[in-house]
Amino acid sequence: MEPIFSTKITKIKGKEVFERDDTLVREIKLELFVNEKRVGALMATPVDQEALAIGYLMSENIIEKFSDVLSLKLLNDGMQVRIEAKVNEANIHKLNAEGVVISGCGKSMTANIDPKAIEAKVIKSDFCLSAQKLSYEMSRFYTECPLYEQTGCVHTAKLFTDEKTYFIGEDIAQHNTIDKVVGKAVMAGVDTRNAFLMVSGRLSSEMVAKAVMHQIPILASRTASTCLGLMIAEKFGLTLIGFVRGDTMNVYRHAHRIVMEEA
Which of 9, 33, 207, 261 could bond to 22 as cystine, CB 3.0-4.6 Å? Predict the structure, then answer.
């Protein structure tokens, strides 16, 4: 299934009224089956569905590592992912019993937004980045998102380790973009503990929690953090940065990973 859809619209521009072609992004209900059991569904854009499934299940601590996955299949015209894997059954139950519909665009659930309940370790990575490099990569980030350029209707994320190793995720739901880039990274054998994550949307609790679950040391956005997002970052040692615009940024917590280049 193509992630975009073409249609005709009526365009009004000033006093002009005319027909034109337009491109919209598709939205599907992606069903996730693990070991023949349905564990949930995500409203998503039909691209990188396998990576999305892996990233989501690892975010929820249902799958610990990609090597635990025995088989991964995309079925039903891209609307269903079936996985055979070694899993944490208790966390599947926890998701079903305690899952919260999260605030990101699109309907999904997580059991990982309570700072007292997140099953994660404090991030101890010594990965650092210069403020100048972070600003430069953020400015490039917004030129590398083809679905956004075509439709103007998706969120984006980029996981960056170096100029040759990075991953882009685009989706109608901003939390899905993190799962997609993380899924791509772990499927490629890349260590997320030595990378930084850029996102297009707000730094809400579920976005911050996903970065923490994957031990990503730096998370940055052009927009702001919520209070709960900041609390999670503070507790788990995540360098959280908002309002990255030009050469300015707000480092909310753990600023030691952002260094200044000498003049």
Answer: 9
Name the helix (H) or strand (E) containing 80.
strand 80-85
Burial of 8 (0-12, 13-18, 19+ CB in 10 A): exposed
Q: Within its chain, how far is the Cα of 147 from the centroid? A: 15
Instruction: Tell me the pLDDT tens digit for each residue of 227-242.
Output: 888 999 999 999 999 9
State whether residue 58 is helix, strand or coil.
helix
> What proportion of the chain, given as a percentage, has pLDDT over 70?
90
> Are 27 and 77 a contacting pair, CB within 8 Å?
no
Q: Is a pLDDT exceeding 60 seen at residue 183? A: yes
Helix (H) or strand (E) holding 10: strand 4-13
Walk me through the domains of the chain, giving residue ranges and CATH numbers: 28-110 (3.10.20.10), 129-259 (3.40.140.10)
Q: How far out from the chain centre does Cα 111 lie?
A: 16
105 is catalytic: yes
